Amino acid sequence: MKLLLLFSLLIYGQLIYAQDADALVAAVSSKLALVKDYTADMHIKAQVPLIKIDEVDAKVYFKKPNQIKIESKAIAILPKQGMGELNQFLANDKAYTTALNGTKMLGDVKTSVVSLMPNSENADIILVKLWIDAQKELILKSQITSKTNGTLDVLYYYGSHAKYGLPYKMVFTIDVKKFKLPKSVAADLHQSKKTNTASNNNQTGTIVISMRNYVVNQGAGSKHFN
Q1: What total of structural domains would you count in the chain?
Q2: In which domain, by residue range, is 82 found?
Q3: Do residues 53 and 189 make contact, with C-beta atoms less than 8 angstroms apart?
Q4: Tens of pLDDT along 171-200?
Q5: Domain CATH for 96
């Protein structure tokens, strides 16, 4: 009888644990779902080992559910998964299974760490980990592991548009070996590796995207997709 009771408690605990993970992701997704469209100005600063990349200004347009358009006069290095695919992935709660992996401090914020595993073997995304501020229902960090782009870590910083889950800054750490760079940048990187005789073990780069002048749910983003 005691063994049966212990087994029942373990199963119940696992169910509650899973529900907590589902609830956290649902809360984050519901905030993102408030955004029907937006426009914003972007400033992009990319640092990739061995090559020099100029800082770039751009304009981003978004329309629900997953249309994103970037306008820039120069080459903009942007990770697709961090810009829109993650939000699209989270919106379909039937596409993944969640698990709660305890808590972790990010700075002075105690976050809940949630893993999301795709239910389809054919999905490009292999695993998503989210560090969620449960009180504010915001993602403070994500880690996306995919077949095509390796591992992408993102830190999110929020300001006046936190109620929509829209950050004013994102810091991406990319796997240079797997990340799909624009052809001209990739060619420069390949040439730099050939001419650089010193050993370089740094295989990661960073992309810092600063956002300002958000216009949310005013139809401004929508008209660019008509």
Answers
A1: 1
A2: 2-225
A3: no
A4: 999 887 777 665 544 444 444 554 454 445
A5: 2.50.20
